[in-house]
TrEMBL record:
InterPro entries: Poly_Biosynth_Transport. It comes from the Bacteria. PANTHER family: LIPID II FLIPPASE MURJ, PST FAMILY PREDICTED COLANIC ACID TRANSPORTER. Keywords: Cell membrane, Membrane, Transmembrane, Transmembrane helix. The chain crosses the membrane at residues 6-29, 41-60, 80-97, 118-139, 145-162, 183-209, 229-254, 275-293, 313-332, 339-358, 364-388, 400-418, 430-449. The keyword Transmembrane applies. It is found in: Cell membrane. This is Oligosaccharide flippase family protein. It is a multi-pass membrane protein. The lineage of its organism: Bacteria, Bacillati, Bacillota, Bacilli, Bacillales.
Length: 456
């Protein structure tokens, strides 16, 4: 139920923000003096739209819950609706600061947001538990809005007390509002369509997967639980390594924008290829990690081995999604937004058809949903790579494959060794943690050494 409500929230969040925060980041990277002016203008729009959708969701929460297939979801949707007023505004401010390359401030604000959110959610759930699990878990979602408020205030304080006094700040240059406005509309619409499709796909999954599982013979409770096992456990773990690749995409995009704007094509290509190589190596290391530590990850995070099989099926996700994210960033840096949009539409369409067709088949069921997720990510990634033919063709693929082979030969025994080391430590479900940390430490050390060598 938590995952189903969040899929609805995610869709509306993307409906409000669209591609505007990303467009603002790209605009600010090119026109730093005008970024703050457009942040203030766009904030007014975000406040009005966010408030309207917040009120709509709260007033019609019961109808929305019935449409999603579970009347009790209204307990989750009402508190989450409050976040639709503040979190989009927070996203816009982060987009502006991304354009200024204030990554530390953004990272700290994300830590503040999640810390406040999680602590409050757990406290509220514990406090209201005597009134019922569904009620307690639902009302606890108010922590999402309060976490967003805390993060927004921290970022606003950071900007007001540091950036205006920073060297290089200058009053905005005279520029046509109409010209800039048309650019924002054109850029944000295409980015919005691409990004909006992902939460839309999540919301489709929340409807299709439980429904088709019931067609396969499971009752309502079993189908909902299986959907939660996939999206709230296995998918969560499989996508976790992509935090690193998201950070790489986040930080490199602005540098690529500037290189492309100044027509430094060789520098643009070199940085793009370097990012692709790092994401490739990290993705392979993460795939091996998920394959070997699937049981331990399921036990450490969820105190149950049930998610292990699904994690193993999804082991390729860190590599594919990492490449999808970095290739999308490179394409957007070139101003080429259409390729990712086309790939996302095709990928989501095939994923929905796969869910509908495969899940009811005997012997597949929930694995049919996994197949749909993998197909979607693979299709988007392949289409993005085709769109970057010039950049990719300039890579030394032979050397990369050789290094990959050596990496695999070294990492597979390393994963097995670190896993056996962890098994010697008797910490219950947490016995595997030392082995996991040792494996990740070795991988990160390798990446740091290799990165430093390329820059010396």
């Amino acid at each position: 139920m938590f995952q189903m409500a969040y899929s609805y929230y995610g869709f509306l969040f993307m409906l409000i923000t669209g591609g505007v925060p990303t467009a603002l980041a790209l605009y600010t990277a090119e026109q730093k003096a005008l970024g703050w002016v457009w942040f203030k203008r766009l904030s007014v729009v975000f406040i009005l739209v966010g408030a309207s959708i917040c009120i709509f969701s709260m007033n019609y929460s019961q109808h929305i819950s019935a449409w999603l297939g579970n009347p009790d979801l209204s307990f989750f949707i009402r508190p989450l609706s409050l976040a639709l007023f503040v979190v989009p505004l927070l996203s816009l401010l982060r987009g502006y600061l991304q354009g200024l390359e204030c990554y530390t401030a953004i990272a700290v604000s994300e830590l503040i947001e999640q810390a406040v959110r999680v602590v409050l959610m757990l406290f509220i759930a514990w406090l209201l538990m005597p009134q019922g699990t569904v009620f307690a878990a639902g009302i606890s979602q108010i922590g999402t809005a309060l976490g967003g408020i805390a993060a927004f205030v921290s970022l606003l304080i950071f900007y007001l007390y540091t950036k205006r006094d920073a060297p290089g700040y200058a009053p905005p240059r005279s520029r046509s509002r109409i010209t800039d406005g048309i650019w924002f509309i054109r850029s944000s619409l295409i980015i919005a369509m691409t990004r909006l499709l992902v939460p839309f796909s999540d919301m489709l999954d929340a409807i299709i997967i439980p429904s088709r599982l019931q067609t396969a013979g499971y009752d309502f409770s079993q189908a909902t639980a299986m959907y939660g096992l996939l999206t709230g456990m296995a998918v969560l773990i499989a996508y976790m390594p992509t935090i690193v690749t998201s950070a790489i995409s986040h930080t490199i995009t602005m540098k690529l924008v500037m290189a492309w704007k100044e027509r430094l094509i060789e520098q643009f290509d070199a940085r793009s290829r370097e990012a692709l190589e790092i994401v490739w190596i990290w993705g392979i290391a993460s795939c091996i990690f998920l394959w070997f530590y699937k049981d331990e990850l399921s036990l450490v995070f969820f105190k149950t081995p049930e998610a292990a099989v699904l994690i193993q099926w999804l082991f390729i996700i860190p590599l594919v999604v990492g490449l999808r994210e970095i290739t999308t960033s490179i394409l957007w840096s070139q101003g080429n937004n259409r390729i990712s949009l086309i790939g996302t539409i095709i990928g989501i369409s095939i994923a929905a058809l796969s869910h509908y067709s495969f899940i009811p088949l005997e012997g597949l069921n929930i694995i049919g949903a996994v197949i749909g997720i993998l197909l979607m990510e693979l299709i988007i990634t392949v289409i993005n790579i085709i769109g970057l033919k010039r950049v990719v063709s300039g890579m030394n693929l032979g050397r990369l494959l050789l290094h990959t082979l050596i990496f695999l030969v070294v990492l597979v025994p390393t994963a097995s060794l670190t896993r056996s080391i962890g098994s010697q430590i008797h910490w219950g479900n947490y016995s595997s943690l030392p082995g996991m940390f040792l494996y990740l430490l070795l991988v990160c050390t390798y990446l740091l050494i290799r990165y430093r060598q390329q820059h010396t």
